[in-house]
Amino acid sequence: MRYGYFDDENREYVIDHVNTPVPWTNYIGVNDMCAVLSQSADGYVFYKSPQYHRITRFRPNAPISRPGHYVYLRDDDTGEYWSISWQPVGKDLTKAKYECRHGLSYSKYSCEYNGISACQTIFIPLNEPVELWDVVLKNNSSRPRCLSIYSYIEFSFHQIDMDNQNFQMSLYASGSSYADGIIEYDLYYEESGYQWFTSSFEPDGFDCLRDRFLGAYRDERNPIAVERGECTGSFEKTGNHCAALQKKLVLQPGQDIRIAFLLGEGKRETAAPMREKYSDPANVDRAFSDLAAFWDEKLSKLQVNTPNQGMNTSLNIWNLYQAEVNIMFSRFASFIEVGGRTGLGFRDTSQDAMTIASSNPEKCRQRIIELCRGLTQQGYGLHLFQPEWFDPEFQGKQQSFKSPTVIPTPSMEEKVHGIKDACSDDALWLIAAISEYIKETGEVSLLDEMVTYADGGEGTVYQHMMRILDFSAEQVGATGICKGLRADWNDCLNLGGGESAMVSFLHYWALQHFLALSRFIGKTEEVEKYEKMAAKVKKACNDNLWDGEWYIRGITGSGRKIGTHDDKEGKVHIESNAWAVFSGVADLDRAVKAMDSVDKYLYTRYGLMLNAPSYTKSDDEIGFVTRVYPGVKENGSIFSHPNPWAWCAEAALGRGDRAMKFYNALLPYNQNDKIEVRQSEPYSYCQFVMGKDHTAFGRARHPFMTGSGGWAYFAATRYLLGVRPDFDHLIVDPCIPKDWGSFDVTRVWRGAVYRIHVENPCGVSKGVKTMEMDGKTLSGWIPVQKAGTQHSVHVVMG
């Protein structure tokens, strides 16, 4: 069953059946202000933090997601009313035509009903804390139409826990007022706790109190003010507050009208210039064009044309977009994670920064510095922290507030809990992030930048990297395998204080990144030290983790091996086997057997399961994973994040057909016509898909905010298509299906444009026979070219 389609020309996903099984979301905004919106304009806005600066209210996990960013229309001759987005009024879809177009940082809602066509485009300009609703109405009937238009949002108390729990504070410390066409929302306990809402017209009515606009025993479906055709002019100190502005209009046959609504940050006086600016439609158009140009620039860094249309649409538009959303914003803003916690997850942010340095090097660099500040002197990272805790500029700008409704700054003891709360994999990801950033930008000087540690003192970025590697070398168990500590990447696999195979493979992978970087900058002493460390890690892994057909997952505190051929449950795990191969620890024979086992035990038509068979009997020595329902999340689901690790592993083995088989199984695009199974949006990777051991096998959950977005982009572009930078050259080393005759990649690297055409006349999966640039033969790679130049590269596989 299909609910929409991909419009690649306009870079939109078009939802023409808006009654999707679950909300299909989009992210609006690219800087400080962000909104999370569904295909029905449900959702919420926040400024910098969804936990500490929520602007509009949202009620999650409800049968119908509400409230949102609504525009109501009323026929004042008949009293009938509807909304431009299908919800909240929810008109009969056999009598009204609704559509939603999710684009890059905007969503467009349109309807045709009762002779009126209407469109509402919601977006946030690049550098202004204001959300714009660009609304166009047209009278398609043959008679004049008397209409009223109403806006509606519901304001939230900034601190989300207080808004949800402490009503004696949130209800009695918030107020609203109206003057000069502007609604101001005031949080009394915050000296700068203000928002405003206005429009491009002079209102004929308004309401600032939610309960007066909606009415008793009503909700957003049937607000009394819209039903009666008149707002009440309500406002008050204390209570629940909204922003409803009403305008009466007369549209002649064929006439259209364009108006704007604005939701902004700050006091009333900041609204007036914004209102004046965006009352001119030309300025609205200019802001929208600037946003399009912003995404043009990002997408232009890498474009592909392959025989796989789903791959083209994903890599050229949606996969990068999802990865960018993750690096721009906290993982804790969605319809699932609704702002109850914020900050940077160390492992998540490190991987996000690693995967899209090509399109957003500035944000990746920012994240790297923030993560270095979140590293302890001992060498482990704080699993979750607020970057503001360690930002000297932020600390120097702290304002005086009447109540702690801004991001709190805890004591040192509260920030750094000690190694008991450390996750063994967290900091290792940062090694690759730093390496990949330097490969992309050439900024070797980053390594010499002085950065503080979370628990005091400072060191260079390079010294931070060594602390990380040394920590993993010190934290090993009796077999020399890295301790799992609180947990490794799989938070639910705790191993009772035992050892993690995945982390040792990850340690080896990080060491290879560090060694390549150290050789490049001529650090002979460090190369010698860490080559010995890498050899020791590799030996420990191969001596203790091989089980005959695959690599085990770990060793519990009592010495019991997990993920062996003797196990009835949790026999094979994707993390240890994919990383054994991708890291380079496994020799060819073992690597082939390990990935054959992954295919045999973990492959499904929706992707690779995390482990199989699922655990059904609780075993606290293995961890909380054994108490998770079989086929759900960490216990036997198709957990999306590690799937690309297996693509990389197969690419390392040169098995392009299997790598693409794995890629296609997980690709959301390929499930566009299976929404009765998938349910979630087909333009976003989801955190997980229910596994074979669950009755809802194939159902996807938790879209957008997942590391699988960045990893899918990284793996597909750098290892399947094989175009990846090194420190002083660009590599082209594809691993593709044998039946691909050719493909093209346009890659911008260090300011030069490379148009790469790859031919596969012999029908191979891997291997480059010849390579030319601008008609001249190259010896294996592409050297750095001058910024601003353009080059044609011709590669023949064989």
From TrEMBL:
Segments forming domain Glycosyl hydrolase 94 supersandwich: 11-281
A GO term for molecular function: carbohydrate binding
Domain of life: Bacteria
CDD domains for this protein: GH94N_ChBP_like
EC number: 2.4.1.280
Keywords: Glycosyltransferase, Transferase
Ranges where the Glycosyl hydrolase 94 catalytic domain occurs: 294-722
SMART domains named in the record: CBM_X
Pfam families assigned: GH94_b-supersand (PF06165), Glyco_hydro_94 (PF17167)
GO annotation terms (biological process): carbohydrate metabolic process
PANTHER family linked: CELLOBIONIC ACID PHOSPHORYLASE-RELATED (PTHR37469), PUTATIVE-RELATED (PTHR37469:SF3)
Full protein name: N,N'-diacetylchitobiose phosphorylase
Biological source species: Caproiciproducens galactitolivorans
